[in-house]
Amino acid sequence: MSYREEQLLNNTRRNGSIVTSYNNADGNQSEKSVLQQQQPVRLQPSWEENNLPDDELNFKNLTMDDASLQINAPRDRYNLVYITFLIHGIGVLMPWNMFITAKSYFSEYKLGKDYIGEELEYGASFLQYLGFAAQVPNVIFNWLNIFMKMGGNLTTRIVWSISIEVVIFVMTIVLAMTDSRDWPGAFFWITMVSVVVLNMVNGIYQNTIFGMAAKLPIKYTGAVVLGSNISGTFTSLVLILSDTFASSQRMSAIYYFITALFVLLVCFDTYFALPLNRFYRHHELKEQKEAQIQQANNHGRQVRVPYLYVFKKALPQLWNIFFVFFCTLAVFPAVHADIKRIDDDFFISEKYFTSVTCFLTFNACAMIGSYLAGLYQFPSSKYLWIPVSLRVLYIPFFLLCNYQVELVTRALPVLINSNWAYWIGAITLGLTSGYFSSLGMMYAPRTVEPKYASTAGMFGAAALITGIFTGILSGFIWPTLIKHVGI
Fold it and tell me: Where would one find the signal peptide in this protein (predicted)?
């Protein structure tokens, strides 16, 4: 055997085939395969050949590490991905919680009689105006983001959303440091415009995070909801600490809003850590492969998401999510925060009564309820609507407590005249809100095929915001109701 034939034989044996040489009619040497030995797909450039069977794994354009990740599912070591989505859950409701929990700063200080010298409707109905300004853009942009993918890819959407939120909070801190007693109307409208912009970008941010979590196992959607409820508890504690240790209400507001900046910057950093995590990358590659297979089955045509189909399949859970938040926001915080102490000998002083029995109690209990939903899923998705519907009874319950609104003379009698009865009702309101909303958000992505789970998760986020919005709108009715309705 010649030297060339020996080298050719050695090279082709390594590639799984034996090749011999011969001279053709023109006297030129050619190569001929006499035996082809089937080998498994190897992680070499030959992945990209077009003659691979359709049912074989095709690792085109993947690194060796990504190809391994696509096959082998790693664990979420130290629950880093879970904690990351928990942090983003805190971040997505941070703008809303920071403004509503600071009710006393806006309505009693910046827009209060002691500061500006007169009573204004802006201060008396601040939470209703705030809720409307916050949730109208939030609802619109949550729904638009499902169909239009506003702001480009995931990274662009989240980075720009968080960056704009940071700028708005910096402006809010500057307003807190500024003496605005001579222009309360301008201060009010500047605050409302900043709230509108804040919630436009937050609608995109929130919807995107729920869509990302829906790609992962069910507990990661629960992590976002749990984080949302922790957000309320966190802001309530920050407010109490700021009021306790700050030298004035002005300094308390400055410390309070600076905390929001810190949380948003943590969210910004942790988002960029996600693609470095092997567990997250596995599920991302898995979704990409399913999309490629779907596109191949459609002969390369762009696959359109059947939005109506997904909506119909997820509708029972979307209703549950919507109604939980409608009933909750119908009374919290607009009614809840204006319930006053019945007697002066209650162990919680007047200064901390609203902060503790309203904001801290609701948010802490919602956090606990959300955590319990991650451990126990009862009732099943089929029967969840029953306890969710019964929560409508919370609306008359809180209206019959000692709900007092400035500039409104109450005609509806106070029938629940016990601080303890009111507080127990507040505890159960928070627990059921956190528990049932988490169940609905976890069940929604599982009502459709895995490839549509992300879209169902985004529908769930939009249903959540719609429930909040309509609940807040109903808050405009209650002052008129207690003024004109007597028993």
Answer: none
pLDDT per position as a tens digit, 283-330: 777 777 766 666 676 665 666 789 999 999 999 999 999 999 999 999
Please provide the DSSP assignment of 224-255 as one string.
HHHHHHHHHHHHHHHHHHHHHHSSSHHHHHHH
In Å, how far are 363, 364, 412, 414 from 427, measured between CA atoms?
9, 9, 24, 20
Q: Which residues of 71-95 are buried (b: 16+ CB within 10 A; e: fewer)?
A: eeeeebeeeebbebbbbbbbbbbbb
- DSSP notation for 423-481: HHHHHHHHHHHHHHHHHHHHHGGGGS-GGGHHHHHHHHHHHHHHHHHHHHHHTTHHHHH
Find all residues with CB under 8 Å of 90, minimum gap 6, and list them. 227, 228, 230, 231, 234, 263, 267
pLDDT digits (tens, 9 = 90+) for 440-464: 999 999 999 888 888 898 899 889 8
Asked whether the CA dihedral 412, 417, 423, 424 is positive or negative, the reply is negative
> Is pTM, for the whole model, over 0.85?
no
Burial string for 4-28 (b: 16+ CB within 10 Å, else e) reads eeeebeeebeeeeeebeeeeeeeee
Give how many domains the chain has, as a whole number.
Answer: 1
**SS3 for 346?**
coil
CATH number for the domain harbouring residue 180: 1.20.1250.20
